[in-house]
Amino acid sequence: MCYHVSLTKSKPEIQNRFKTTFKNPDLFEPYYHLNGFSNANGFIITSENHQIDKAKWGLKPENFTEHQVFNLNTLNAKSETVFQSPLFNEPTIKRRCLVLADGFYESKHINGKKFPHYIYLENNSLFAFAGIYNYENNGAINFSILTTSVNPFMANIHNSKKRMPIIIDDDFEKDWLNHSLKENEVKELVASCFTKKELKAHSVSKDLHSKRETNSKEILKPVYYQELNTLFD
Asked: 136 - beta bridge partners?
C-alpha cells in the first residue's frame, strides 16, 4: 500500500536528478505530505514525452469523463495481478510512468494502535515509484503506483497489509519508460526493477492521519513512541 508520499526537493534538484524538465514549472510546489485520498495531484514522467507533468493520483479508465462515476480505489495497483485486470493491463504494457518522490509513509500496527513511519533512501535522495497512467477525455493525466509484497525491512513497519510500493532502481528507470517493450519484457521488468539501495525509516507524528494540516516540515520530524521503544536510523 502507498497512499501518502513526499516530494520535498526543489525544481532544479528534481530536473537535475531525472535529466528532464517540468512541462509546466509554475504548477509545481514541493510537498511534505501528499495524501492520495485528498483528490491529490502528483508529478510523473510519462513514457511519451519524458517530461515532468502534473497528474491526478488514482487511475481512471482511458478517456474517462467528468460525468462518469468511478468509485474504485486505484491509488495503487497490485503488480502480481495487473496483467489480468481489464483496467490495469493496457496501461501497464503501454503507458508506464515514473512517479517522483523522496519518501513515503506507512504505519506499524501494535495492539490495535497505528504508529506512522516515514520511509526514505539514504540522504533523503530522490527516487521514482513504478507507475502507470491513463488520459482523461479532457487531456488530464491520472496514475496509479504499483505495489508488491513487503521485503524484510518493510515487513517490520507495514506489518498489517504487508505491501509496499515498487521503487525503481536507477538502472531500470529508462527501461520503465520504454513504451516499445512487449508484455513478457514488462513482466520481467516488474519482477526485477526494485531498487538495490537501502531503505531507512523513522516514526513520525500521528497527526499524519488526523484532520490537521500536515503538509509542512514538522511532519517529517522523528517522534519517539514508548510502544516502539526505538527510533529507526
From this structure: 64
Whose cell is 491509488? That residue is: 75
Element (H, E) at 135: strand 127-135
Distance between CA atoms of 28 and 220, rounded to whole angstroms? 20
Please say whether the dihedral angle defined by the alpha carbons of residues 200, 203, 207 and 210, taken in this order, is positive or negative.
positive
Which H helix or E strand runs over 93? Answer: helix 89-94
* CA neighbor of 30 nearest in space, from 56, 9, 14, 12: 9
Q: How deeply is 124 buried, as exposed, middle or buried, from its count of CB atoms within 10 A (0-12, 13-18, 19+)?
A: middle
- pLDDT tens sequence across 70-108: 888 999 999 999 999 999 999 999 999 999 999 999 999
Q: Quick one: DSSP state of residue 25?
A: G
Q: Is 45 in contact with 83 (CB distance < 8 Å)?
A: no
pTM: 0.95
Report the half-sphere exposure of 216 (CA within 13 A, side-chain side): 6
